[in-house]
Amino acid sequence: MISTQYKTILILILLGVVDVLIPIPIIGLILIYVVIQKPLWFQDLVKDIYRLE
Prior knowledge:
The chain has about 55 residues and is an all-alpha fold. It has helices at about 5-20, 25-35, 40-50. The chain has one domain (about 5-50). Helix content is about 75%, strand content about 0%. The longest helix has 18 residues, at about 5-20.
């Protein structure tokens, strides 16, 4: 099974490619959403990557 760190890197690479091909700044929109809403899935992802409890 692929670790969370590798999944995150692969998703960021994929989003970067999509961001280059489509003139809508997808990564920027996700960043704004994460900063404003502070979703639980993002906090769980950070905890999983850095193994914080």
